[in-house]
Amino acid sequence: MKTVNxxxxxxxxxxxxxxxxxxxxxxxxxxxxxxxxxxxxxxxIPAREAWLYQNEKALIKVKxxxxxxxxxxxxxxxxxxxx
Length: 83
Known about the structure:
two-stranded antiparallel ribbon
């Protein structure tokens, strides 16, 4: 677990840049548990895409298809090229 000391500014804010420098985080969920503040980085997805993550079979098929990308030989498309 990474531990970093963060300073509070005059308005009692902290910056999480030291903890989340390269993560694609769009929000942070905060919990108060036994006098400790726990922060959970969150990534939000559009509602129209949420179904995919709720349908395990579809998600597996998409992941399989993405892993096969570039391995299927579709032949030449030269006959469709305009001259």
